[in-house]
């Protein structure tokens, strides 16, 4: 008799755990819906405040460049897209995405977008693509043109050693690694 009572108590305790889990899941689902609504409302507020910060006198390219410059000094992190770490394609991807221009996440895929242009025709906001000789014989690095001065092109990009920096295309290393330029905007 004691064994039967003991078995019934164990069965009830297991079924009690199962029903309390369902109750927790239902409660979580309802708070998740509420949280989604709050996040959606906050996103609209954030979007409006971002749109308020866009100066109408600035071009989209100038706004993208300004956005990218805020990451200068951020350390390199493979696959990174935030101020805690950034890689070259992450920098370009996030800078364009901030202004509703969606690009592929990988530099060699970015190089398939837009129009290929010659160096003499580049302008600020255009992209430079490089083959730095790592692993594959294909494009593996990208930079965003931020300035053109005296036939020299300044671009912002993320390097493994120095993180997000600006460089000049006339530097020997970058000139040798240069593959092509593309206009996205």
From TrEMBL:
<dbReference type="InterPro" id="IPR052062">
    <property type="entry name" value="Murein_DD/LD_carboxypeptidase"/>
</dbReference>
<keyword id="KW-0732">Signal</keyword>
<dbReference type="Pfam" id="PF00877">
    <property type="entry name" value="NLPC_P60"/>
</dbReference>
<dbReference type="InterPro" id="IPR038765">
    <property type="entry name" value="Papain-like_cys_pep_sf"/>
</dbReference>
<keyword id="KW-0645">Protease</keyword>
<feature type="domain" description="NlpC/P60">
    <location>
        <begin position="58"/>
        <end position="185"/>
    </location>
</feature>
<keyword id="KW-0378">Hydrolase</keyword>
<dbReference type="InterPro" id="IPR000064">
    <property type="entry name" value="NLP_P60_dom"/>
</dbReference>
<keyword id="KW-0788">Thiol protease</keyword>
<protein>
    <recommendedName>
        <fullName>NlpC/P60 domain-containing protein</fullName>
    </recommendedName>
</protein>
<comment type="similarity">
    <text>Belongs to the peptidase C40 family.</text>
</comment>
